[in-house]
Amino acid sequence: MPTFDIGPEDFLLDGERMQVVSGALHYFRVHPDQWADRIRKARQMGLNTIETYVPWNFHAPEPGVFDLDGRRDLGRFLDLVAAEGLHAIVRPGPYICAEWDGGGLPAWLLADDAVGVRRHEPRFLDAIGKYYASLLPLVAERQVTHGGPVLMVQVENEYGAYGDDPLPERQRYLRALVDLVRDQGIDVPLFTCDQANDEMLARGGLPELHKTATFGSRTAERFEVLRRHQPTGPLMCMEFWNGWFDSWGLEHHVAPAEANAADLDELLAAGGSVNLYMFHGGTNFGLTSGANDKGIYRPITTSYDYDAPLAEDGSPTAKYFAMRDVIARHLPVPDDVPVAPEPAPVLDVPLTAHVPLADAVSSLVRGALRAYDHAPTMEELGLWSGFAVYRTRIRPDDAVLTVGEVRDRAVVLLDGQPVGVLDRGSHTFAVALPARAGELTLLVENQGHVNYGPRIGEPKGLIGAVRTAVRTLDEWTAGALRVEDAADLLRGALDVTVPSGAGAAAAAGAAVAGTSGDTAEDATAGAAWAGLYRGTFDSVAGADHFLRLDGWTKGLAWVNGELLGRFWSHGPTHTLYVPGPLVRSTGNELVLLELHGAASARARFVSGPALGITEQ
């Protein structure tokens, strides 16, 4: 029977020393028809292992649901890793961070305030036990000890950075997770990972579990810290940070290829094992991106390119070849190398069908709006991601709308016309109201649950009292929107007239903070109101595309019914990646939900990605 063990100094595969040279590749951020391509390119760079997180909420989007099909087919992904001759490391959480919505923890679970987040609490542990029972058997049957690719499984994730429970309670929680993992037949080594910091390493692991560290440079210093907490056994950097993630409104992060390669060379020369984070970042498709909040709420961009060696579209970069050269100094690398893809098709797409925002909101409500005597949270609505709609009546003397807090952003409309925006990121919690009575609608967007730190698990929607200048608003109807059905709403609506003229944009965005001042180079169709838009296009079947929305402000984009993710004129990202498997030769459908207004009712597909300005 094959074996993988933690020896006195090295990892041992069938008794022989193995220096693990791994790369992070998240199956949930890559179209499944492209998994094999990305895995092959990992082997071509010289990697011998693929590491992936497993996001609990991706597989369990609702209570009582567990999905392992299609994009969620982890078993197929691991089989493709094995078919390429590579090994695997699996990191199933329950918490993963990963700039993923809520760090992978299901919002439906944490909606119960009695659930103890990341601690030894019966409800939390019971839910984890059910999660592991649904997931880990497929991992168990693919362990190296069963002839499969899986070498190791992680317990929790950077736990030393979370919470203030005393050490005995922390270790009690970790040991409970170990028991739950072992109960599902996992017999390969278990490990923890924490930042290369004395306090975090001491708080985040167990004496009986192998410790690994996370860092991106200064290998000798970081390994010295790790060795103080891991006296024997192989030294491993479980997250070698060769890039970084992007947040809306900030610059695009890059890390110089030469510096990354030099740091990797130092690590491998020291005999250490490594997992590149990321080897290939991919995309936060749909509504899956998370957020950080250290005083300012900053949601993560749709692109998760990460300045990784393999770009968002699977293109090898200069960093790819620099790291390949380094790996070749220490381990054998294959003779075959990937080639850069051809430029993507360039297209101009007029959007000829339109449904105004107020009408779109009414059409997308999931069931009937329900009455409340307060503004409910999204959790009270049973909504774990996306958008909620809130409605009430205002009087001429109300004058101003104020909320305790909005999580995370709300477009405010009076009788269907925009009057302002409430925004958590800019701490904008008040909007002036016209001096007239009418129906007030708030379209509230959850821009991603916080994925790191003490604000994990916080509720979304309108938080606290909602007031005007003269009273508290306590008569509401509210409900969830079915944004997944937005493309269906517009299908067949090609005869609807798209608005034109500069006045349309002014009406749509004059009172709205944060609208774009950019002008599309080919603005021939006139300005566009907020709402749903649809256009069709022919192109090259199976070819990757890059959707560029200059002049549009903020919203969502679908191609052929697949939600690509969010766009926002705040940047840094200017393009949305469209995986080739989504594209056919004729009759492709592009749908946009625009929350404010656009310079023209046109969109473009461009030849390559535009990820924004950098610090350099």
State the distance separating the first and last CA atoms: 52 Å
- What's the β-strand tally? 31
What structural class should be given to the helix and strand makeup? Answer: alpha+beta
What's the rounded overall pLDDT mean? Answer: 94
The low-confidence runs, each spanning 5 or more residues with pLDDT under 50, are: 493-497, 500-525
Spatial ordering of strands, largest sheet: 4-5-6-7-8-9-10-11
Rg, Cα atoms, Å: 25 Å
Percent of residues in beta strands: 25-35%
Number of helices: 13
Estimate the helix proportion, in percent.
10-25%
Can you summarize this structure?
By secondary structure, the chain is of the alpha+beta class. The protein has 13 helices and 31 strands.
Write up this protein.
It contains 13 helices and 31 strands. It has 616 residues and is of the alpha+beta class. It has an eight-stranded parallel beta barrel with strand order 4-5-6-7-8-9-10-11, surrounded by five helices. The protein has a six-stranded antiparallel beta sheet with strand order 16-24-17-22-19-20. The protein has a five-stranded antiparallel beta sheet with strand order 15-25-30-27-28. Helix 5 packs parallel to helix 6 and helix 9 (257-269) runs parallel beside helix 10. It is globular and about 80 Å long. Residues 493-497 and 500-525 have low confidence and may be disordered.
